[in-house]
Design goal:
Order of helices and strands: HEHHEEEEEHEEEHEHEEEHHHHEHHEH
Number of helices: 13
Shape: globular
CATH architecture of the largest domain: 2-Layer Sandwich
Distance between the termini: 15 Å
Radius of gyration: 23 Å
CATH superfamily of the largest domain: ATPase, nucleotide binding domain
CATH topology of the largest domain: Nucleotidyltransferase, domain 5
Structural class: alpha/beta
Helix content: 40-55%
Bound molecules: zinc ion
Length: 410
């Protein structure tokens, strides 16, 4: 292993990111509190705060009396949420979601457009560029304050080259250099990541006190995948494609899968599989929607209406789905020993009323370390746009969060 050192500027940049991260996650902190929580000297904190104040990223927000006894009141420092922005784009097979996110993680503006159904990536790229332009126009933000554009795309991706590589639910997308195309079209720096990874980054960016927690984000879109944060680190794997759970077998009697197994997640838990099973059971009219993302989406909505009406066959199907998902999550949790599971994605809120109650107890019964610690399961607090919010968080995370690897000399 090659050991690399750090030089003064890279340490300075890292310390500044640590201070900003502390201010961002608190409602207000004084310089004294910052020195205490970061372990940096008072002088270093003071210098960093002067730079952040100069840049308009933080502001002085009044004075608070010293916590212990008499003494000079302390000036509280607070993040300026409107000082920087990032644009997030979620490329989903059925819908394009755009958000403009402030540095404080608040959604300033958002919009959705149907994903062009023709197998025409160039048309989708043009639409994305036009809509980003429109979003910035209507929101009226100063473009100089936009740090960049993040794109969350279905995997697999070539992370190094910023290329979308043959995603199973986007017909016609063969090695599309999406990152560079959007950079060229908008003039902004662009980052591209998998949608599941973006969702995990969104959760981490919005946590008040990350505290080294490890979690898996189960992303329920047209496909299923997990985004992973272990300790403080987002896990991307060697090629940026970690988190593919599609071929975990969860039902030994399930349908055959292209991988040669039976009852994999990909053929027994996805919305397409759910709709196909409902059609086979006569719960939905057989329309054989197959790969068309929008019709699967609509059929899923019809299915949850049946569940809401109390249809016994539909409820039993959703119960089986909860069990299968819990089995897949158990493999992830047992392998990585995470503390929490967060579930979200465009399909989640419709299915949550039927899956949310069953998954935690089913999962708990399958965990090897259940006697040692509890694994909490909860829906995301970030809503259906978590992919797009995550895409914007990729930009903020890369530009502003403390990245230990930034210390390494190139
Ligand atoms: Zn399989």
């Amino acid at each position: 292993m090659v050991r690399r050192g750090a030089n003064q500027p890279s340490v300075g940049g890292y310390n500044q990111a640590v201070v900003l991260d502390q201010i961002r996650r608190a409602d207000g902190l004084s310089r004294v509190e910052l020195a205490e929580t970061t372990g940096l000297s008072a002088q270093t904190v003071s210098n960093i705060c002067a730079r952040l104040l100069d840049a308009g990223i933080i502001e002085e927000a009044g004075r608070a009396a010293a916590a212990a006894g008499p003494g000079k009141p302390r000036t509280t420092l607070r993040l300026v949420g409107t000082s920087r922005y990032a644009v997030g784009v979620h490329l989903d097979p059925s819908v394009l979601t755009f958000v403009l996110l402030g540095i404080d993680g608040a959604v300033v503006d958002s919009r959705t457009r149907p994903t062009p159904s023709a197998n025409d990536p160039a048309r989708t790229v043009r639409l994305i560029v036009t809509e980003i332009d429109g979003l910035l126009d209507t929101s009226g933000v100063d473009r100089a304050r936009v740090v960049g554009v993040g794109i969350a795309a279905p995997g697999p991706i070539d992370a190094e080259r910023g290329v979308v590589v043959d995603p199973p639910n986007l017909a016609g997308w063969h090695r599309v250099p999406l990152r560079d195309a959007i950079a060229q079209g908008t003039g902004f720096p662009v980052v591209l990541d998998k949608d599941v990874t973006a969702a995990a980054v969104a959760e981490r960016w919005h946590e008040r006190a990350p505290g080294g927690a490890s979690f898996a984000f189960l992303y329920l879109g047209i496909g299923l995948g997990v985004g992973l944060v272990l300790g403080e680190d987002v896990v991307r794997g060697g090629s940026g494609n970690a988190g593919e759970i599609g071929h975990i077998p969860v039902d030994p009697d399930g349908p055959p899968c292209a991988c040669g197994s039976r009852g994999c997640v990909a053929v027994s838990c996805t919305p397409a599989a759910l709709v196909a099973e409902a059609e086979a059971l006569g719960l939905l009219p057989a329309t054989h929607v197959d790969d068309d993302a929008r019709s699967i989406d609509e059929a899923l909505t019809r299915l949850v209406v049946r569940a809401a009406d109390g249809d016994a066959g539909t409820l039993a199907l959703l119960e089986r789905t909860a069990e299968r998902i819990a089995r897949a999550l158990a493999v992830v949790c047992n392998l990585l020993d995470v503390d929490r599971v967060i579930i979200g994605g465009p399909m989640w809120h419709r299915l949550a009323p039927w899956l949310e109650a069953d998954i935690p107890q089913l999962l708990a019964s399958l965990l090897v370390a259940r006697g040692l610690h509890h694994v909490a399961v909860a829906g995301t607090g970030l809503g259906d746009d978590v992919g797009a919010i995550g895409a914007a968080c990729l930009v903020l995370d890369a530009a502003l969060a403390p990245q230990p690897r930034s210390l390494l000399l190139g």
